[in-house]
Amino acid sequence: ERQQNVPVFDAVVVGAGFSGLYMLQRLREAGYSVRVYEAGEDVGGTWYWNRYPGARCDIESIYYNYTFSEEILNEWTWSARYAEQPEILSYINYVADKLDLRRDIQFNTRITAARYNEQNCNWEIRMDDGSLVIAEYFITALGCLSASNVPDLKGMDTFKGEMYHTGRWPHEEVDFNGKRVGVIGTGSSGIQAIPVIAKEAGQLTVFQRTPQYSCPAQNHPLDSEVISQTRENYGELKQLMRYSMHGVPSGPRMRSALEDSPEERERLYEKAWQEGGLFTLTYNYNDIGILPEATETAASFIRTKIKQVVQDHDTAQKLMPSYYYATKRPIIDTDYFETYNRDNVSLVDIKADPIVEMTPNGLKTTNAEYDLDVLVFATGFDAMTGPLFKIDIRGKNDVSLKQKWEDGANLKTYLGLATSGFPNMFMLTGPQSPSVLSNMMVSIEQHVDWVADCIGYLREHHLQAFEATAEAEEFWSQQCAAIADMSLLSKTDSWYMGANIEGKPRGFLAFAGGVGLYRLICDDVSARGYEGFTSELAAGAKDE
Ligand code: NA7
User: What is the ipTM of this complex?
Assistant: First the structure.
């Protein structure tokens, strides 16, 4: 193929969500030519696509924002403890406008393939319109939860009603008024959407595969006092967030749940329940999600709450989770369990009564038939590897990433940032990074800063073909598995384990050692001249 007239960039970034936008900013600031490609028609990523009713971030708004710019921190004011999707999307738009990011973003364009050219040490990147660009660095900013998982139900195409997935929600408002609505899925998205849809729908039927532990968000408007205090202390807060476990300023108390009396535990759990928050309950102790007996104390507290809230005995029983609490991402809600006390809401346990097929009129389980006007899939995502596999990424020797990682035991990355055989490719918030276990913003900024610094280093030293070694990724992958095995994380069927997708290999997909430790490791790797990576001196540089 002739490569004249093919645009050449220093870096191509795929995705214009929080990570892609900051990557663009950092590289552009350093003087590189960068082009971002985005499948959506505007910026926002997760917050562009997930427009379902009730969509909200589970990290407190004051910590869920960029921290790289004091000006941005001071200019933006969040309205509530937990920000709703439209407000987060406005924030992203505000940043994109302020930094004039759109001029380097091509929207409505999906990257379909990327191939490493060993001769030239660069990437040939192809789009869905057939066009081609070349970049020295190929950076994926695809998000961890962006490849929607829609179950392939028999007879789906015969259904006469409307169907939506929470992660691909239409821009026009969906009208539930008086309609018979079904929701499949009770993860975070389902649990946020169900109470809101219930208020509008004529009849809402929830199809639940696995019940979930959920605690009240206790959301409320933010008062100006909190906002000004946060602004004043952001320097310190930022440090606390960066060196924490999950990317928020607090962390678990250094005490076992088994050290306290049942009464004392009850008192602390109740206090946490009233306070609300993603980690409030678990942070009472440092062994929840780690020791089965300790974990059970928190789990049974939540089960008792469910029993107290839900009036119908049968429904309450069905809503009772049994897996190890905190081994899936905790969920916070607004009136989720209360919603089952409404006359127009009912719950179907599809483990006991599985879905058999869809019909023109609705959904059929083994024991019953449900007529529906609207069916909402809150069925989650093919997490972390899913978005990467949607692109035909080929490294050295024309090996595809999918081939390389095909078997779960072969998912190997170094620091979740790179993988051997794929030089000059960086994954932001990639598999085996701590991102999905954390406040995503802290993870994103850390990854982007590390990658930007790395590219600066390579340029400064005239290095090319920057690649993780097989030994380094072997070691890292073993560490990820070992750390997960120290807790109960790998004992639960979750999307962290790849268990939500049929046929997906099982294996823990993240680094569970915390964002603080992870940052120290990454900084150490760069301080040692990028230990665990190889590169070569560029031809031109040799002649100099
Ligand atoms: P999740 O957390 O993956 O939840 C998806 C839900 O859909 C969950 O209840 C699943 O049950 C259920 N599901 C998935 N596939 C099916 C099929 N085939 N049939 C029936 N039910 C199914 O995704 P969310 O979008 O809610 O949340 C993702 C993250 O976003 C969340 O962790 C927060 O970080 C924000 P399962 O539990 O797998 O049995």
Answer: 0.99
